[in-house]
Amino acid sequence: MTQVATKQKHFDIVGSFLRPEELKQAREDFSNEKITKAELTEIENKLIKDLVEKEIDNGLKIVTDGEFRRSYWHLDTFWGFDGIKHTKQEHGYIFHDVETRNDSAQLDGKIKFNPNHPDLLAFKYLQSLVEDNDEVIARQSIPSPAQCYLELVRGPENVAALQKVYGTDTDALIHDLGLAYHDLILALYDAGCRDVKLDDCTWGLLADPDGWALVKDGFDNLQQLLDLNLKFNNEAIRDLPEDLRISTHVCRGNYASTWHQRVVMLRLPKHYLVRKTFKHTT
């Protein structure tokens, strides 16, 4: 039976840390073709190593690479799957008085796991930093399958692209997206990962009436979409190794210290937590 995190901890981390100025400058230099990809990777490696040492020095037993190789907390993971491409929308994500960049993810084929997925490559370096330390576990945080699905239906162009590939066959979509995630998690496990955190803003989004209004197209009621999101997540975490710890982070979203959803903690138990539990056995 896969371990679903329930044991109380005094503190924990999701995995994302503020990017150092050196990293932000390196990304800008790479974008402007002032440095090569290899030079950017070298800087990332150095800063990740520094971060891991700080995490350990501060008593963390579960460490991450800070997501220093990602441009977004979620989109890079989606772009790493076969069948999902990087696109732009008219608008970015709307936070409280702030609009982000307008990147998105859109289907251009059947969804499949990519053996060269960037999250897998990133984890292998992280694992190399702690593999000789028996007291520390390397965590890989990834956005949830449900989060990926909501991105694939964010806006009419994304919806049209999804329907072009899968039509009305929701079961096939659940299977393919779930399997791509399942294969990624197993590949992480084979690389030494024993702790995966699913970063998931979907429940907060759907608990906010304003958020629900943004994504309800094609669904008759909120519970229908909640149940679908649960199916996506459960398809990904079924039949995993017994010594792999799976946990989730439910977030109302933040960008530059601004928030996306409101009244989440008041509504979330009513809509979800008292009705469903993670299915972690078969």
UniProtKB/TrEMBL annotation:
Residues annotated as signal peptide: none
Domain of life, source organism: Bacteria
InterPro entries: Met_Synth_C/arc (IPR002629), UROD/MetE-like_sf (IPR038071)
This protein's UniProt keywords: Methyltransferase, Transferase
EC code: 2.1.1.14
Protein's UniProt keywords contain Ion transport: no
A GO biological process held by the record: methylation
MF terms in GO: 5-methyltetrahydropteroyltriglutamate-homocysteine S-methyltransferase activity; zinc ion binding
Name listed for the protein in its UniProt record: Methionine synthase, vitamin-B12 independent
Annotated organism of origin: Apilactobacillus kunkeei EFB6
Gene this chain is encoded by: metK1
